[in-house]
Amino acid sequence: MLALAAAVWSVTIFPGDTDGAATAVAGRPGSHPAGSGPLALSLQITPAPYQLPTGITREVVFTQRGDLLIAGGLTQRSGSTATVSRLNPVTGRVTQAGQLAQPTHDAAGALLAGRPYVFGGGERASTAAVQEVSPGRTAILAGRLPGPRSDLSSVTVGRTAYLLGGYTGSRYAPDVLATTDGRSFRTVAVLPVPVRYPAVAALNGHIWVFGGQTRSGPTDVIQQVTPRTGRARVVGFLPHRTTGAVAFTLAGRLYLAGGQQILNGGARPHLVTTDEVLAVDPTRVTVTTAGHLPFPVANAAAAVLAGTVYLIGGTGAHRPLPAVTRLHLVPPAAALPPSTPTTPNPVTAPGISLLAEPLPASAPWLGPPLTSGHLAPGSDPSALPGDILIADNHNNRLLIVDPQGRVRWRFPGPGDLAPGQAFRRPDDAFFSPDGRYIVATEEDYSVISVIDVARHQIVYRYGTPGVPGYAANHVANPDDAMMMPGGMLITADIENCRLLLLSPPAHRPDRVIGRTGVCAHHPPQEFASPNGAFPTTNGHYLVTEINGDWATEIGLNGHRYWSAHPPGVAYPSDTNEVYPDRFLTADYSAAGQVVEFDARGHLLWRFGGLNHPSLALPLPNGDILVNDDYNDRVIVIDPVSNRIVWQYGHAGVPGPAPGYLNDPDGVDLTPPNSLVITHAATMGTAGRPSAHRPGG
Fold first, then answer.
1. H or E element: which one contains 353?
2. What is the mean pLDDT of the chain?
3. In this structure, what are the phi and psi dihedrals at residue 334, rounded to the nearest 5 degrees?
4. Which of 337, 364, 456, 387 is nearest to 648 (CA)?
5. Contact 620, 295 (CB under 8 A)
6. Which pTM value belongs to this model?
7. Are strands 9-10 and 153-157 parallel, antiparallel or unpaired?
8. I need a labelling partner for 238 at 20 to 30 A (CA). Which of 196, 223, 362, 658 fits?
9. Do residues 649 and 632 touch, judged by C-beta distance below 8 A?
10. What's the pLDDT tens digit per position in 421-472?
11. What is the pLDDT of residue 252?
12. Residues near 261 by Cβ (< 8 Å), separated by ≥ 6?
């Protein structure tokens, strides 16, 4: 009981229409391909630059004063929770916001007169309880449903909340209930196909009910309820039998995201979790593919805030996820790959116009693979949200590798370098905010290169190749250079003990943070060999210092917020943020490890057995992407099971052939999941001060 999916809260927000690639459903009414909508907007899907503190699924989510309230659900230990949390959707900060009167999951939620209500759900059995959530306090039992009901969904239209589907403990509930106060209920319609775990959304006076679980299994029916007339009917069909999805409306089109689908391929039908986002034309009831989530997920909850849909938590392949995914509509020219985005501030170099040219129709790495797949046995491609960029240091190359282990893009190839130009020992590489460029630091070659991905050309360099120094156009072991949305570069200049802000096409620093050549831990006035400056969601940067083993949060306004020693780490490398007050660092030593810790230096998680790992990045699904340098591999770690679930490269066997790496020293995800793109909204701003300011 109470299995398979989460309730969904959806609202109508914009009039209009969108466009998508057709997914025909042969032999079904209302399944012809959809045409272009009048606004021709594209759905942009990106992971948030943070995670939740822990995985959650089958919860209820509300909007309140610019924040999101997360109530109830199942935790990573598969227990119902009574916790109500407040999520700042910009910074990712989560705070305690009260308690439910009783733990629950698989409930429905709605705002009535601005007050959040949780309807039904259950813990060990279905409940009829209606809980009025009071942020900061314990919820009150405000009323009762006409009978016990879990696995239901809800939608709010005007001042009325409608409850659809669900399970009473003995039967699938067909009656559609309406309430304006959470205490009195009336039946407004009866579903022709009773379901539990449906996805629901409202548009133009109708409530749409997508899929769900019937007594004979998941269904593909699309049902439409018209509360004004009491009419409920089947109006169309989904491409697959689906349960546990979420539904929402944007610009006059209905969307359906994730869920579990019955696929008919192979010897027998089987249930799989999907990453698909479908658009449904409400006029013709046609279903089209609008995009893909960063990972497969079911049982999530969704809320719409300021024109952005936030998809919270859910169940992945094996466990509740700490994920937050953002979906919103943009003009096609601003969409991320397969249509790459524009950026408003052009940056120019001699003879080159960076970020100002017409953008390519598709990302080059989405073309045919250059090699067949090569993964270590037991690797699960679904652990990755998309392709990854690898700085293959000793092979003097950059690779883009897909989750199946196929090389999709390589630099440099024959003819990619100009006469007399060399590309040596790339140690880190990150995509630009528009996805068109890769910024690579050639640390041992004393130069930073900006590479046009489509044209396979270096279009800007800072530093004098092979000549370390500290004067203009010189660096000494530059590390982790990243491009801000306005085109400025930030990099750690290790041996000069400083951070540099660079504005191409200039070849002198726009700004120096730290004192050149003075290597001591006194940030931000002085740094002790900084090897990374990574953005946080509050607009600050995390600077890692090798000497003294420090991680420090600073603002570009020159303020230090905290410093801490990553616990038990001999050589900290590239500290970055998982979510506020949880940080991830790699220990670049023979006893290599990846460590999570807080701003007071308390150990939160550790994974050992590595050999000089230099960078670990959190993935949207809660896994961790690591380049295990001296083991010549890139891996994905599941931090819940503490297992390696994906590996490219042969452990301890270097080489240049497909499937081999040689001291891989840097990784990034391809757009739209890449580090700088997910942080673009706050990267480079001074940000508001952190809530925590422990000393160090």
1. strand 352-354
2. 88
3. -100, 0
4. 387
5. yes
6. 0.88
7. parallel
8. 362
9. yes
10. 999 999 999 999 999 999 999 999 999 999 999 999 999 999 999 999 999 9
11. 83
12. 218, 240, 241, 242, 271, 272, 273, 274, 276
